[in-house]
Sequence to fold (133 residues):
Amino acid sequence: MKETGRIREIRESTVIIQPDLSAACFGCMNQACKSGGFISAENKTALPLKPGQIVEVYVPGAGVFQQTLIALLPPALGFIIGFVLTRLLFPEAGEGAAGISGVVLLFAAGFIVYLARRKNPAKKECTVTRILE
Fold:
């Protein structure tokens, strides 16, 4: 995944970038950027960077895929476990009751993932790849 933005600050090899709001970011639909979010990237190739330059930042696809799995898999498993456990523990319960318990566990698992990510946010492995301007 590639992002573009303007360099706001440089701290040693870490570059703080203001994302380009005109570029479409499918992951959050620019909601994080509009609320003042910045991208923290590494200058691993030792490019001659200065504040104010527009640069391209690369985020590895494997990291994005891993974060997606961590966000989506637990709620889906929560629903499945809730549905199946209700059917096993209460065989006389209908599909409606099993569905409701599945939805409750879906939201519970989603909330747990939210709290875990809020306490330990995912580390982005962004790298500045080239200078655009």
About this structure: The chain has three helices and five strands. Residues 2-60+123-131 form a domain with the OB fold (Dihydrolipoamide Acetyltransferase, E2P) fold (CATH 2.40.50.140).
